[in-house]
Amino acid sequence: MTEVRTVYLIDDDASVRRGLGRLLKSAGYDVVTCDTPEAYLALTSYRKPSCLLLDIRMPGMTGLELQRALHGDGSHPPVVLLSGHVDAATAERAIAEGAVAVLSKPVDFATLVNAIELGLARTR
Amino acid sequence: MSERPTALRLPLIAGVVAAGYYVGAQIGLALTFPPATTSVLWPPNAILTAALLMVRPRMWWVCLAAALPVHILLEIDAGFSAQLVALLFVTNCSEALIAAIAVRLLSDAPTRFDSLRRVAAFVAGAGLLAPIVSSFADAAVVNLLRGENYWDVWRVRVFSNVLTELSVAPAIILGWQVVQSLVERRPRARSAVESIAFVLVLLALAMLVFGRPGVRDALPGSPPTPIVLLLPVFGWAAMRFGVGGVSAALLGSAFVASYETAAGLRPFATLTPVDSLIAVQMILAVVAIPLMLLSGLLGDRRQATEKLAARLRFEELLSSIAGSFLRLTDDAAALRSSLTLVSEFFGADCVGLLQLGDGAIELEAEQQLCGAGAMHLTAETFRRRFPSAMERAIDGETVVWTSADAIPGTASQDVQSFEEFGFRFLVILPFAGSYVVRGALLLAATRERLMSESDLVQLRLIADVLATARARHRAELDAQRSRQEVAQMARRSSMGELASALAHQLNQPLAAIMANAQAAQRLIESGVPQGIDIHEGLDDIVQDCRRASDVVQRVRDMVAPSKVQREPLDLADVVRDVAMLLASDTLIRRVRLALEFGSDGAPIRGDRVLLQQAVLNVIVNAIDAVAELRESDRVVTVWTGSSGDNQARIRVRDQGRGLPPGTEAQVFEPFFSTKSTGLGMGLAIARSIVESHGGTIQLENDPAGVIVTINLPVAELVA
Q1: Shortest Cα–Cα distance, B530 to chain A (Å)
Q2: Cβ contact (<8 Å) for A15 and B540?
Q3: pTM, two decimal places
Q4: Of B29, B49, B102, B479, which is the most exposed, with the fewest CB atoms less than 10 Å away?
């Protein structure tokens, strides 16, 4: 396991960022956290292979909007969406628009890792 | 007469005509002044005329045949030759026939004398034409066989017959009608007294006028032509009794005049008895004809007035019906009051509005005025007992049955029911097609009533008014329903938003807790800390648990504020307010909310709005429980009062199917619902409100329904 695999974690809730960051680090991922989509977009370079873990509900630009903006842009990593309250229609649409998975909070470790692995697989 | 069975009718007509002819001829023969053959007053011809006018033309031969033997017997008896008797019978019959044919041709109702046209037809045909024409033949016969002067005979016969036709025929026809009406209902005392007074005055004056000169002279200053004294009586007759009255006045005066003349007294002393009588007859006829026409004119006026009055009554009915829909906010009450008015106006025992659905019929409101025992007519009864009538109504046909004979033979069930119910008419008028409401107006009565074409026109108008009112009502209900659906949707979506906000607020700390906990687990299991501080993670977990608990507390505060307003209240008022809030809901879902208030009231202290919310939630549940039941079972009973032990109480009872067994303990838990669309918050909120008021709420479950009891401390204890 020489390759460094990165998860970009974007969530407006500091506590969630910290908690999920710890969990992902415990699984061996390199974690980059951003508190807003704008902060993520402001990054100058993006590592690969990587995966984007994105909260849907955020003040300002929402996760869905960011995902839509990134969709089709090969320079950005695949997106896994996270949400506290997601309805089936939104989830289906997000998948159709290229999201790897839509997970609901609070998320189980195994499910989270599965989704991220799927996303990472796409970057190769 | 014409309604009697045929077997009886023939001999009855024959017998009556023969008897009449006999009496008339006896009078006539008594008033013949020998050596003249012709009587100065000969009623039989007029009697025959009356008979021919009253029976149908195909029965005329019966009348003529019945008169023949009487005529022969009497005239042979009087010493006339067989030839003369036979020829006189022919001339007599010819007069009656000419009269009957002429009147039937000229008048629209030969036996009625209540319009100018009818009176004129009678006066011209029977009063003038027939006597004048037939007298030519009669005079010829008498002149040939008896050698009397042709014009003397003609003159005597014309005047006597003009007078008898005018006086006897209407008197008989109208007299028969009066007798018939007396059988049906007793006369009013006032008109009976007036009639008797009229007869007495008439006879007294006639005797005074035609009677002994001595009596007349006793009246100082009496006119030289005393016959004018009769004029006011004739006027009285024309104004108050119509043609029948004039006719009776004529008959009375002519009879008295003839009688007195025969007895040797005559008003015109310078003339021979015969000429004097002819003069009297001429005067009477000349006076009577214009008066008869006048009373015909009065009849026209009266009919026009009655028509106008009927029209006005109908207009009034229409406007009261329209008014009741405008005035009464409760549409069902307006419909009921309208149908009551209709049933009174048309004399119907049962008036209903049939609602025609897709092949199904619902009798929406019914009005039964007369308590004819067997007649409780529900839509079901009608469908079962009058299948053919209902079928027609569904097809949009009008049903007008005025007797069992009018019902087609194929509808045997309908015929049988019609007779069993003792109906005299059954009318079903479907609403005109373009209305939203498909329905029909139904009327049935056990009392005789003529349903004329104009009645049907009026009923159709009423049906239109009702249909329009129903259509408007339906549209209003639809609008109300959609308003309510919008409100419900808005409520749902705001509840949905609340739920989603709540989920987000709670899920953030939960997600963090879960992530931290799982990270800690993994670290403990693997035992390889990779620069991660497990203590920080645990601190975060504690923080996030506090955060979640704060969210929950905020929601609790939002749903049931801990600061409860304490104003004096009566629980009955709270229930009334809620009932008002729910009025349109119960109306649309056709649920009856029965409110019962205990006499001693239920004073408490509390927050009006919160308690309304609690009671509303409980009652809404009860309404939901009964909403799918038969309409008659959709009843929710709310009782308020005091329960004795210083507790004010509200008890809400539905007669729904109850809750699934074993769920009683959970109903007050949040998010527990037995309804597919329920959020499960209603009773939870109700309990939290009641408990914040120091009260209790209990639920008793039974297959026959649910009773929810709310107990609250009465005011004194709280204060």
Answers
A1: 7
A2: yes
A3: 0.52
A4: B479
